[in-house]
Amino acid sequence: MSKIAKCPIKVPNNVEILLDKEVVIVIGNNGRLFLSKPSSVVIVKDQQKLIFNSKKKDWVITGTIRALVNNMIIGVYKGFTRKLEINGVGYRAKIFGRIINLMLGYTHRIEYKLPKNIFAETHSKTLIILKGADKQKLGIVAAEIRAVRPIEPYKGRGIRYTEEKVVYKEVKKNKG
């Protein structure tokens, strides 16, 4: 049995949850999120708590659905942020509306168009802050931007998450 599925979720006052047989809708200050769930997972709303049960012995998927609904509640209540740091001489980013313009040492500029409900800002030329209510979509966007120029292990040039630790390699030496 899943230990996560047994824990109820406390719902904040300004978050509204609509339950259906197949869909969970969470509405809050930062937007509206939807989740399709299997019919074997039963969600019961008791005052300001959500309790998760399973009709069959699907406790594993019940724990997964509970974690996803918890992320949705946190997302519409507080929101999620992801910070990307750009390292390298001449590497920088600019934001024009919904497009991030990346200059990363290539012969051309790379333009990344942000999806709906994901917002970006830059406080300096080398720091991109991504914000959004959907944790999964935010992680995908951050990974796609990072994949444009992943960090290289010798000098540390490229795009990395601010909390990411880079293991540097020693320079190759010629023994001749």
Summarize the structure.
This protein is 21% helix and 39% strand. By secondary structure, it is of the alpha+beta class.
Question: Can you describe what's shown?
Answer:
By secondary structure, this protein is of the alpha+beta class. It is built from 3 helices and 13 strands. It has helices spanning 3-6, 59-77, 135-148, and strands spanning 9-10, 16-19, 23-28, 31-36, 41-46, 49-54, 80-87, 92-96, 99-103, 110-113, 118-124, 127-132, 158-161. The strands form 4 sheets. A 4-stranded antiparallel β-sheet has the order 11-12-7-13, with helices on one face. The chain has a 3-stranded antiparallel β-sheet with strand order 1-6-5. The longest helix is centred in the middle third of the chain and has 19 residues, at 59-77. It starts with a helix and ends in a 15-residue tail after the last strand. The mean pLDDT is 89.
